[in-house]
Amino acid sequence: MSTRVIAIDWSGAKRNAAKKIWLAEFRDRQPFGLPRNGKDSTEVLDYLVRSCVDHCETVVGIDFAFSFPDWFIADQGCRTAEEMWNRVESAGERWLKECGDPFWGRPGKKNPRRPETEQFRKTDRDFLVKDIHPKSIFQIGGAGAVGTGSIRGMRLLRQLSREGFSIWPFQPDGWPRVIEIWPRALTGVVRKTNLIAREAYIDAHCHELPTEWKHCAASSEDAFDAIVSAVAMNRYVGELESLRQETDARYLKEGRIWGAARA
């Protein structure tokens, strides 16, 4: 049995998150079933745990930040990403509600313009697609904000880790494993807000998809991100199989975006 890949376009929304969370899956290098939404975070966890009983060699890619810049981790009295997930469990909702420095993006809460080395993790600064970096985890409101989804997503990482999943790059190698993805790094430049642009991209770059998958990918930005990310993961499954625990101390605390297929 070959390695299975699942790409999840995540949402940290408190309301209607199930409509926004999309899963796309490949088994035996082929599209499996149909991409789907309709599962909230609890149901996503349940599906991953149950399905990995029979498909242990699974790589799950999720599009939120798995940790924080190292200075903030230390500021919270933590030494590892795992300790930070525990801290987020107790303090994360308060951070989102108060939106105090270093967080920003809520009405009246402007970007404090901290130095780039404080706003971003090393892995965020590694990636540049047409002058665009991943967003700062400290941005919890406004266009493209990833902070809310990341903070609420860390609970999922904590739960998956307890269920025996290896969270890359923090933990020893093992199956099943979970990786952080940034869809833009896997698609290159595309105007995802535009239906015609999504359709054109899919026709040009996703030849292996059946018609139903292509229609689904064009239907929304969320579906597009999940499906195109799954395609990239499936194409690079050999690299995903060979991922090893990180040795760089910075990545080991802050996390690392996987992006072999980046443009």
Indicate the radius of gyration in whole angstroms: 17 Å
Find the count of extended strands (DSSP E, 2+ residues).
7
N-end to C-end Cα span: 30 Å
User: What's the level 1 CATH class of the largest domain?
Assistant: Alpha Beta
Number of helices: 13
Q: Which spans have pLDDT < 50 for at least 5 consecutive residues? A: none
Question: What does the overall shape look like?
Answer: globular
Strand percentage: 5-15%
Chain-averaged pLDDT: 93
CATH architecture of the largest domain: 2-Layer Sandwich
Number of domains: 2
> What is the fold named in CATH at topology level of the largest domain?
Nucleotidyltransferase, domain 5
Which class of secondary structure composition applies to the elements?
alpha/beta
Biggest sheet, open or closed, and with what strands and sense? 7 strands, mixed
Summarize the amount of helix as a percent range.
40-55%
Explain this structure to me?
With 263 residues, the chain is an alpha/beta fold. Helix content is 44%, strand content 11%. It has 13 helices and seven strands. Strands 1, 2, 3, 4, 5, 6 and 7 form a seven-stranded mixed beta sheet that branches. A hairpin with a 2-residue loop joins strand 2 and strand 3. Helix 2 runs parallel beside helix 7 and helix 9 packs antiparallel against helix 10. The chain starts with a strand and ends in a 5-residue tail after the last strand. The mean pLDDT is 93.
